[in-house]
Amino acid sequence: MQSLELFEATEQSQPQRLGPAAMVLRGVALPHVRELMPAIEVIEAMSPFRHMVTPGGFTMSVALTNCGALGWTTDRRGYRYTAVDPETGAPWPAMPEAFARLANEAAAVAGFDGFKPDACLINRYLPGSRLSLHQDRNERDYDAPIVSVSLGMRAVFLFGGHSRTDPAVKVSLHHGDVVVWGGADRLRYHGVMPLKDEPHALLGSQRINFTFRKAG
Ligand code: MD3
Ligand code: FE
Questions:
Q1: What's the pLDDT tens digit per position in 96-122?
Q2: CA-CA distance, 153 to 24, in Å (whole number)?
Q3: Could you state, in order of their start, the residue ranges of all structural domains in the chain?
């Protein structure tokens, strides 16, 4: 028991470097969970989670919604950011101040001062959901970092290189973990392995991931 507690304490306190400008901050979102969870309910009541279709005609296994001035969408015509939810015809729900603050503080810890996200993509994974290797390149400005917050079930994240065929490092992301990446790591290929059903005490059989970006 003693050694397990020591291990967990270490897991949470050591920022893990994935690349020259990419860091995993273990557990730093844990104090914010009680604010984040009810905020998701408000957001999904306005803009529900939905499975979007890729330009290649595949329906994503991950369901998504957005908050903030801009939201990421895909359909047969391509990937893009829009100010309006194509499903409701209304603007995406506003980004809660607490979300923007968490993203700004995490970015600063990783060395990116003054991060002001205008988009927050919210991905919902169920057992079996996956995200194939891709680059995030629909944002206007690659100088801004991206901040991701993981809640619920564990996921195995794939951190690749600058070419699709470069070998990928596997990183487990747990409830409360935050990843920040920018600079030289901003355009790395990345993805998420199919989720195993390991129900989480608070969220059950799902994983929620927020990615904060400066899209416009
Ligand atoms: C990218 N989401 O929505 S975020 C996406 O867990 C997306 O839902 C994943 O990729 C998710 O576009 C991953 C975390 C992440 C971490 C490190 C990265 C993305 C990264 C390093 C380089 C590039
Ligand atoms: Fe991505």
A1: 999 999 999 999 999 999 999 999 999
A2: 17
A3: 2-213
Q: What is the pLDDT of residues 13-48, one digit of tens each?
A: 568 899 999 999 999 999 999 999 999 999 999 999
Which phi and psi angles does 188 have, rounded to 5°?
-65, 145
**Residue with the nearest Cα to atom 16 of ligand 1?**
179
**Strand segments (E) across 51-166:** 63-67, 71-75, 78-82, 119-125, 131-134, 146-152, 155-159
Q: Which residues line ligand 1 (CB under 6 A)?
A: 22, 121, 123, 131, 136, 148, 155, 157, 159, 179, 181, 185, 188, 190, 192, 209, 211
**Which residues 6+ apart lie within 8 Å of 110 measured at CB?**
15, 21, 22, 23, 25, 145, 180, 181, 182
Q: Which of 157, 174, 176 is nearest to 37 (CA)?
A: 176
Q: Torsions phi, psi of 121, nearest 5?
A: -85, 130
Please give the class, per CATH, of domain 2-213: mainly beta
Q: Which tokens sit at 22?
A: 């990419």
